[in-house]
Amino acid sequence: MSVGATASGMSGDPYKLGYSHHGHLEPGTDEATGHGEGGPASKRIVVAYGFWIFLLSDIIMFSAFFASYAVLSGATAGGPTGRELFDLPRVAIQTLCLLTSSFACGLAAIATRLRNHLWTQIGLLVTGLLGVVFLALEFQEFTTMIAQGAGPSRSAFLSSFFALVGCHGLHVTAGLLWLGTMMAQVFVKGFQPPILRRLMCFSLFWHALDIIWVALFSVVYLIGAYS
Amino acid sequence: MPKNSPTGFVTAFFTSVTGFALIWHIWWMVVIGLVGAFATFVVFAWRDVDEYEFPAEEVAKIDRERRRVRAEAIAAMRQPA
């Protein structure tokens, strides 16, 4: 079954994308890499791989903020502590918003796979609206804290708190801008391959933010409110 | 081949503007920097053609020409002056 190695040559299927170890495949169905004759990875795989590297670097940045918060969470300089400041019911609603938002994002991804325009847009819209509610609640939390004199300059604890939670909030804001652009692109350009790849990357990004929020919720709010 | 694009440079310009404005608390300039960076992103994302074809025959032609010139140069060097 060495047809791919000899016959493809310079024309037709130069990278032998239609062949694998086990012989003939339908052209374009094999997206696996590392199978010797599988040829270079498809663009979808390459894009997802690159985006995962970005996400991992982002998570490394967050791990640095988490580490500084863990070290400084007790350094209140005589100011308010987490137990006095954190409003757990609001944080619970924020968590619910973000988790439901990720669920809606997953539904949008299924609708995209089915090439259903209406439900893709509805899923993305729900994703975005829940993200906006999350951000509004976070904004309310920050302004309340600053009004109480518990701003980022009050203590090292609050500096690291605003840096960590604010960094996540900025990511959500950037994600919402991206989401709006994606909805416009799906509306104008339809399900072209580049648009599908971007939707996949957005989905990865949004789920990664969700995972970071779960860590934030546990490390900052739960431990802070009960310690 | 991916097409060339000045997007990286333009985005770097706008983010530098944003950084400068944030340091000196010039809030209107922060807004301009962020809007500019976002507009650049949208323009870049809206391109329909982001690749161009570079046929193998063209590569082979250029390579043949290069090898011919090199062979001539070597032959000229080997001839006693």
Radius of gyration computed on alpha carbons of chain A = 23 Å
Kindly report how far apart the N and C termini of chain B lie: 45 Å
Percentage of residues in DSSP E strands of chain A:
under 5%
Summarize the amount of helix of chain B as a percent range. Answer: over 70%
Order of SSEs of chain A, N→C? HEEHHHHHH
Q: Helix and strand succession of chain B?
A: HHH
Largest interface: A-B, 8 and 8 residues
Tell me, briefly, the overall form of chain A. elongated
CATH architecture of the largest domain in chain A: Up-down Bundle
Largest sheet of chain A: 2 strands, antiparallel
Net shape of chain B:
elongated
Strand content of chain B: under 5%
CATH topology of the largest domain in chain A: Four Helix Bundle (Hemerythrin (Met), subunit A)
Q: How is the quaternary structure best described?
A: heterodimer
Overall mean pLDDT of chain A:
87
Fraction of residues in H or I helices of chain A: over 70%
Terminal Cα span of chain A: 66 Å
Main sheet record of chain B: none
